[in-house]
Design brief:
20-stranded parallel sheet, FXL18 protein, alpha/beta, single chain, FBXL18_LRR, F-box_dom, F-box-like_dom_sf
């Protein structure tokens, strides 16, 4: 493009090559490294020199370069391998082990991320033996991993590694015992309770494995557990050493565990030791470790930047007194996760119902003390503003001018005075039908808002909030009782809980308010019951031109998809959209839908979850042929197993050769083998798009590079 545009530029008196090297280097920094080295540098002598500048070859990011293949990797490592100091190949699941071996050419590597890559114990040993400058490493530990196969040279390299990220698919310490200089340890536990053959797995580690990880220099400990008791058993083994002697320099201690993860004597000793000996900057604990204990009263904090009390029964009174110290200045706090913390905005939780009104003074204290928050998650709870006392939640949040990401429950954004005057619109205008499939045509919707609607917008607290948060990049509006039809490691959910009564009026006008977010990049909307036409989606599509990720789930009445026409119009504007997740019962994904989707020229990943939903196979094939960037196509619908398998085989046969990263799963949503199919999905896709979850403040910012 640079070369082809030169003649036109010269005719206008502008030549790109006349720009200074500094400007050209800045422009080239936005080009993937593989394109720079393998294509752009071959265009002219000046670009040949600039493309090999150290500022462009120092760090190579391949983690979402889905077009990279074995030949490109081989050529890249051959041309600039010695210049690379940081290499990120996370999630390159389509590259073979022999292709990954070419990393050995990068003799000066300091940081290496191989999460999601196929690397055996022997290959890892050979690779690390040559990387003597390595200080940061991310790997997977798969079944069959054997630490005894690591050579002396490999262990010498590991002894100098100070940052380790390890994803475990089998009970093991991995390479942790070899890393004697660890300062940052990130552990992701993805071990299933049952093998493919149906045998129950044990949390016991392999015989002969060292049980003495070296934590004396540890500053950051992070563990994220997938559901399952085996993951809990294994993480307790990692924590056992910490409970004996807590590192003096520990400043971030984070454990993310779903469901119930009971406290034991060892973990209690660990927490008591932490309360005595360390001052923390980041904290996240399982809910059972916090609920009913006075732990937060004794822990000491330095300049905290991240707190997560997700799913805890922590009351607002305790939050203010024990964490914020009654209004202590917490300007250092940039990320706060209160997802599922149902009483966090109430003074006490003992006699309170989850649906009772919040105490706005608690939220006000939070906003005043934590005025520099950039990421805030208040989802999965009923945060109802009072009709008569204090300010509305949206009015208080509008003071947080630095917010970049925000997650709210649907019932928290309603105008309480308006709700008291009018009944739920969705239930009265559209029949709720769950049992039978409703055949519908393409819905029409108003494209121009009436004066009455404009007046409602001007008086809406949510409209005012969106107007005040102009730099917001990520927004999630999720029903407090919403649960996805695809929970992890379980059969699909067949029935969902009804939305909160306070949320019944949230619909098209509130969605239209989001279009004020000019810089919005990621949007999640789930269980908005009063979506009648979807007209607000078109506003978002036309105004939010930076939108890259869109997730829509259970909008409008559950018996029919009333917003399909508006969605198709919206998609025609989404030129930058890369990820689309659509979860809606009775979706008829036919030719018109996929034709509209074909306008999303940047789309890379598509996930459709639809109970009783239907697909038009030839429309899917045509869409894939037109959208050349799509490398992930997951569809869980109501079609038969035969139809799904035939379509999946056709897609793989037609497009796998030219798209090496292609991952296709077409499967009946309610089939009993769904969990077996899910376990073969690459973790990158499963975690980022296929499974529904709130992602705002899920982890501390910049946890890993």
């Amino acid at each position: 493009e640079i070369v082809s545009g030169e003649s036109e530029e010269e005719s206008n008196g502008i030549n790109l090559m006349e720009f200074s090297d500094e400007i050209l280097l800045h422009i080239l920094s936005y080009v993937p490294c593989t394109d720079l080295v393998l294509n752009v540098r071959r265009t002219c002598r000046k670009l040949a020199t600039l493309c090999l500048d150290k500022s462009l070859t120092h760090t190579v990011l391949l983690q979402k370069d889905y077009k990279v293949n074995k030949d490109k990797v081989k050529q890249l490592m051959r041309d600039i391998g010695k210049e690379i100091h940081q290499l990120n190949m996370a999630g390159c699941y389509w590259l073979s082990s022999s292709t990954i071996d070419h990393v050995t050419r990068c003799k000066n590597l300091v940081k290496l991320n191989l999460s999601g890559c196929h690397v055996t114990s022997l290959r890892l040993s050979k690779m690390l033996s040559t990387l003597q400058h390595l200080r940061s490493l991310a790997i997977d530990v798969n079944p069959g991993f054997d630490a005894s196969q690591l050579s002396g040279e490999c262990k010498a390299t590991l002894s100098r590694v100070s940052e380790l990220k390890q994803t475990l698919y089998t009970p093991s310490y991995g390479v942790v015992p070899c890393c004697t200089s660890l300062e940052k340890l990130l552990l992701y536990f993805e071990i299933l309770d049952r093998s493919r053959e149906g045998f129950m797995l044990s949390g016991q580690l392999m015989v002969g494995e060292s049980n003495v990880p070296h934590y004396q220099n540890l500053r950051v400990f992070y563990a994220r557990l997938a559901p399952g008791y085996v993951n809990q058993e294994v993480v307790r083994l990692y924590l056992a050493v910490l409970s004996d002697r807590t590192p003096e320099n520990l400043h971030a201690f984070l454990i993310s565990a779903p469901g119930s993860f009971a406290e034991t004597g060892a973990t209690k000793n660990l927490l008591d030791s932490m309360a005595r000996n360390v001052r923390l900057d980041a904290l996240q604990l399982p809910k059972a470790w916090i609920n009913g204990s006075g732990l937060l009263q004794h822990l000491k904090f330095n300049n905290p930047f991240y707190f997560s009390f997700s799913r805890c029964t922590l009351s607002g009174g305790h939050l203010i007194q024990r964490v914020i110290n009654g209004g202590k200045d917490l300007k250092s706090l940039t990320s706060l996760n209160l997802s599922g913390c149902v009483h966090c905005l109430a003074p006490e939780s003992l006699f309170r119902k989850a649906e009772d009104d919040i105490d706005s003074s608690i939220l006000e204290s939070l906003v005043v003390s934590c005025c520099n928050l950039r990421h805030l998650n208040l989802s999965a709870a009923h945060h109802h503003s009072s009709e008569s006392i204090g300010s509305h939640l949206c009015q208080l949040l509008s003071r947080l001018k630095h917010l970049l990401s925000l997650a709210l429950p649907v019932c928290s954004i309603t105008n309480v005075a308006a709700d008291a005057e009018k009944p739920p619109a969705a239930s009265s205008l559209v029949p709720q039908t769950f049992g039978r499939k409703v055949r519908i045509g393409i819905q029409t919707y108003p494209r121009n808002l009436t004066d009455q609607a404009n007046q409602k917008m001007e008086s809406s607290v949510f409209w005012a909030l969106m107007r005040s948060l102009r730099f917001l990049e990520t927004l999630e509006i999720i029903g407090s009782s919403f649960s996805s039809a695809m929970p992890r490691n379980e059969p699909a959910i067949r029935n969902s809980l009804p939305p909160c009564a306070r949320a019944q009026s949230v619909g098209d006008s509130e969605v239209a308010a989001i279009s004020q977010l000019t810089y919005l990049q990621s949007l999640t909307l789930a269980q908005l019951p009063n979506i009648l036409t979807g007209s607000g989606l078109v506003n978002i599509g036309s105004q939010c031109q930076h939108l890259r990720t869109l997730s829509l789930a259970n909008l409008g009445p559950m018996g029919k998809m009333v917003y399909l026409s508006a969605l198709m119009d919206m998609l025609k504007h989404c030129k930058c959209l890369r990820d689309l997740r659509l979860e809606q019962p009775y979706l008829c994904a036919g030719a018109q839908f996929f034709q509209a989707l074909s306008h999303c020229s940047s789309l890379q990943r598509l996930c459709i979850v639809s109970r009783s939903g239907t697909l038009q196979s030839d429309a899917v094939m045509s869409f894939m042929a037109n959208c050349l960037e799509v490398i992930m196509c997951h569809m869980f619908v109501g079609e038969s197993l035969t139809v799904c398998k035939n379509l999946q085989q056709s897609l793989v046969r037609s497009f796998q050769a030219e798209r090496p990263a292609l991952n296709v799963v077409i499967f009946p949503l309610l089939h009993e083998d769904l969990t077996e199919v899910i376990r073969d999905v690459p973790m990158r896709h499963l975690d980022e798009i296929t499974l529904f979850k709130s992602r705002v403040a899920e982890e501390p910012p910049n946890l890993w590079w």
